[in-house]
Every structure is written in C-alpha cells, then in structure tokens.
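Researcher: Sequence recovery benchmark, item below. Answer with residues only.
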C-alpha cells in the first residue's frame, strides 16, 4: 500500500514538472526575433507612415505595430546608433552606424514599436540598413 502511494506521488511530481517545462518553453520563453533576416511585412515611405499614424493611430498600430517594415526616407538627424527620417521617424539600430547619412535617401528595415505622442515620432527598433 505504501509503495503504491510513493509511486503515485512520484508520477504526480513528474507530470507537474513536465507541465511546468512545457508552459515555460511553450508560452513564456520566446527567442528574440532576428529582424535582419525577416522579410518585411510592409515597404513604405516615412511620410506615408507618419500620415497613417497622424490620421488614425489605432488603425496604424493594427497594421504596423510589432511588424517588420522597410521604410524609405531622407535622413534628417543621426547619432551613433539612431537615425531620424523626415524629422519624425526614430530608427534605433542594433549596432553603431559609422556612415554619415545626413540629407541622403536611405532604406531602413526595423520593427515598428509604435507612436510616441510626447515626441510625435514613430519608433522603429532593431534597425538595419
């Protein structure tokens, strides 16, 4: 009788541990996306992206938020790892950008992380050229 109880407890513990591992790896643990290797969901100009967010932010979020987009525009400001297109599209790069691009038309791929109402900017993360 005692032996059956021990086997039942061990089986229950194994099931519980297996369920915990499945839950962790199946739902909680997500690998980081590699935006550079992803095919963009949208190819759009910086001005069109800004127009979409200014006209209807909720609709624009439903289209672009957390999507990989390739954006074309004129560089208006840059730092080591940030390029700003058309004064209002903020592109954060994964690595420092040694090339000076001010006033040049560029194509940048990144993940759209939304519209910042305070700075009135659309923000892209994990950007690459």
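Model:
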């Amino acid at each position: 009788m005692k032996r059956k109880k021990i086997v039942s407890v061990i089986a229950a513990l194994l099931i519980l541990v297996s369920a915990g591992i499945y839950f962790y790896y199946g739902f909680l643990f997500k690998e980081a996306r590699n935006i550079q290797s992803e095919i963009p969901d949208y190819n759009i100009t910086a001005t069109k992206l800004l127009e979409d967010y200014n006209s209807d932010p909720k609709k624009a979020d439903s289209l672009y938020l957390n999507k990989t987009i390739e954006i074309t525009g004129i560089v208006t400001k840059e730092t080591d790892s940030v390029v700003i297109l058309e004064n209002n599209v903020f592109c954060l790069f994964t690595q420092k950008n040694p090339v000076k691009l001010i006033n040049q038309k560029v194509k940048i791929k990144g993940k759209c992380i939304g519209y910042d109402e305070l700075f009135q900017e659309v923000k892209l993360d994990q950007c690459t050229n």
